[in-house]
Amino acid sequence: MGDDHVETLRRFYEANRNELFTYALAVSRSREAAEDAIHTAFSKMLKKRRPPRELRPYVFRCVRNAAIDEHRARSREAQEDSPFAIDETHNNGHDPELQRQLADMLLTLSEDERESIMLKIYSGMTFNEIAATRSVSINTAASWYRRGIEKLRALMQGDME
Amino acid sequence: MKDLERELKSISTATPHDSHNRRMERLFLEASHRRSWLSKPIPLWQGLAACAVAVTLGYLYRGSQTPVPVVPTETTRTVYIVPASPEFQRAMQGSAQSRPLAGRSGSYVIELSPLPFDSPSESGDAI
């Protein structure tokens, strides 16, 4: 039973390491803090006897909590790291300048809006999972997301005009 | 909305350092070792052997700590007071050295009174 728990978490980490890192980085805004948060969260989860029923929201919630703690602990340090890595050469036909603008705009949204967009788009979560991760209702999670997207659209249109 | 979502999805995200991945691998490895050691089933014979060793050690320790009480051996001492003639005294002293009294394996001593006893019927003392 114990080995199964470790193996389950290890496999989950292997499959979601980039998503977890991006989310932790979006919360903490520091690469080191994000890495430490993931390590701390998994250390704590590995000490538990058995995995929770809904692993995905649970792990993301643990990482989020640890990232908030790390962010608070490093509040005096400069925390300007972006969760995005815009590649000028491999952009699959997308405009890197537009991508950079979108990334910057995303960081201007409120925490709830930004996090719901990060979880939906970059972690592939459903609204149900986002709601479980943030311990809110599905409607709240969905409205954060829609409001964030609307704001981004408005910002984009304002930028173009 | 879909276009914007597609555009957002196209943005590459940052990836963790290799050192972080190695650190996480170490974490899972340590957790796996710790779990496997703690959850290892103990065979019956090992449990019984551990019990036997514990009982033996406990017995030896208790034995070394508690002084063994010296139980005084119960001895009965029978005193025969008989008016002895010189011949009888000689006979008794001889038999004391040669064989046990009345078939008993205990040692005995014959004390000869310096004063001759009167006959019990005359003195009236019965000890």
Which whole number gives the mean pLDDT of chain B? Answer: 75
Largest interface: A-B, 45 and 26 residues
How would you describe the oligomerization state of the chains in this entry?
heterodimer
Number of helices of chain B: 5
Order of helix and strand elements from N to C terminus of chain B: HHHHH
Largest sheet of chain A: none
**H-E order of chain A:** HHHHHHH
- Structural category of chain A: mainly alpha
Low-pLDDT residue spans of chain B: 121-127
Largest sheet of chain B: none
Distance between the termini of chain B: 127 Å
What's the end-to-end separation of chain A, in Å?
60 Å
Strand-pairing-aware structural class of chain B? mainly alpha
**Which shape of chain B, going by the Cα principal axes?**
rod-shaped
SS element count, helices of chain A: 7
The Cα radius of gyration of chain B reads 47 Å
Radius of gyration of chain A: 17 Å
What is the structure about, briefly put?
The complex is a heterodimer of chains A (161) and B (127). With 161 residues, chain A is mainly alpha-helical. Chain A has helices at residues 2-28, 31-47, 55-73, 96-106, 111-122, 127-134, 138-160.
SSE diagram, text form:
The complex is a heterodimer of chains A (161) and B (127).
Chain A: H1 2-28, H2 31-47, H3 55-73, H4 96-106, H5 111-122, H6 127-134, H7 138-160
Helix pairs in contact in A: 1-2, 1-3, 1-5, 2-3, 3-6, 4-7, 5-7, 6-7
Chain B: H1 2-9, H2 18-38, H3 44-65, H4 86-98, H5 120-123
